[in-house]
Amino acid sequence: MSVESRLPLQETSPDVVAVPAPTPWPLVLAFGVLLLFGGLATSAAVSALGAVAALAGLVGWFRQVLPREAHEQVRAEPAPALPVTTRREVVHLHVAGGSRRAWLPVEIYPVSAGIRGGLAGGLVMAILALVYGAVSGRGIWYPVNLLSAVFPGAVAEAELARFHAGSTLIAVAIHLIGSLCVGLLYGAMLPMLPRRPILLGGLVVPLVWSALFYGIVGVVNPVFKQHVAWPWFVVCQIGFGVVAGLVVSTRERVKTWQGAPLVLRAGIEAIGLEREPRQGKQP
Predict the structure, then answer these.
(1) Residues 248 and 144 reside in one and the same domain
(2) Final residue belonging to a domain, choices 24, 59, 75
(3) pLDDT at position 99, please?
(4) Helix pair angle (230-249, 111-136), 10° resolution
(5) In the predicted model, is pLDDT for residue 260 greater than 80?
(6) Are 221 and 124 in a shared domain?
(7) Looking at residue 282, what is its pLDDT?
(8) What is the pTM of this model?
(9) Are 62 and 135 within one domain?
(10) What is the dihedral of CA 188, 192, 196, 201, to 10 degrees?
(11) Has residue 176 been placed in a domain?
(12) Are both 148 and 236 inside the same structural domain?
């Protein structure tokens, strides 16, 4: 043992703290109580031994804290060093109204952006499909009739290369509704991934949709699946996704209403809700 450890500790030292002195009497009291009640199921001698142990523990414990609680001085350990981490700090997202919790995204594209993107992408997709019909030698009406052939019996398999007014109307309706729905979906999805909207809309979504459509159409109409040129189908989907993503992402975003008061979001008109007082207005 070193000479320094033998020296008495000084209470005024910042490295010394006073803590309650260790005592075994609480354990003796608990053990005596255990024997006291355990004797009820065994014998009176066990209960008597437990009573003696409990009394001894009680007296010893009280003598440890009365009339003055016993303390001992110990040397305090140095405070541990602050942990160092290379992780990025969390940045809180502040929204209008001073709230620190928000539903993402805070800004969204208007509905008109999704509609315009869907119409523009659908137009490019239709042009690519007609170009495929002309280049393949099957005629420009082949992809049109093939789209309407999703519904079995809409057009005969031998008549796919000819013009049919009924199948053309069906194809236009399917293409228009699908383009609008996917355009609205793009308008809702792209704000969630703002860094690479064209990669998401022009490559990821078309590939995923083509894979899903390939598995579904075989159950709905196997004839349609046999006649579709799937590489060109994927090219049309990518063309739609790139154009729709460009049109949607170039539109100006609008802030959501989550930072506004509840009365404003509910459309309630009340005095005192204006954020800035009007100029020249007397009270």
Answers:
(1) yes
(2) 75
(3) 53
(4) 150
(5) no
(6) yes
(7) 46
(8) 0.50
(9) no
(10) -30
(11) yes
(12) yes
* Average pLDDT score over residue span 13-30: 82
Q: How confident is the model at residue 34 (pLDDT cuts 50, 70, 90)?
A: very high
Confidence of residue 152 (pLDDT cuts 50, 70, 90): low
Distance CA 141, CA 169 (A): 12
Residue span of the structural domain in which 132 resides: 110-252
* Spatial contact of 238 and 203, defined as CB atoms under 8 Å apart: yes
DSSP string, 6-33: HSPPPTTSTTEEEEEPP-SHHHHHHHHH
Least confident range from 36-40, 123-127, 184-188: namely 184-188
Closest CA to 201 of 255, 235, 249: 249
136's enclosing H/E stretch is helix 111-136
Residues 170 and 244 in one domain: yes
**pLDDT cut 70: percent of the chain above it:** 71
SS3 107: strand
**Residue range 216-225: mean pLDDT, rounded:** 72
What is the DSSP annotation of 65-90? HSSS--EEEEEPPPPPPPP---SPPP
Q: Evaluate whether residue 218 is within a structural domain.
A: yes
Q: Strand runs (DSSP E) across 129-206, as ranges?
A: none
CA separation for the pair 248, 116 (Å, rounded): 7
Mean pLDDT of the region 76-87: 77
The CA distance from 268 to 272, in Å, is 12
How many CB atoms lie under 10 A from the CB of residue 238? Answer: 19
The tally of domains found in the chain comes to 2
116 is a domain residue: yes
Pick 190 or 246 by higher pLDDT: 246
Amino acid, res. 240: F
Instruction: Tell whether 104 is covered by a domain.
Output: no
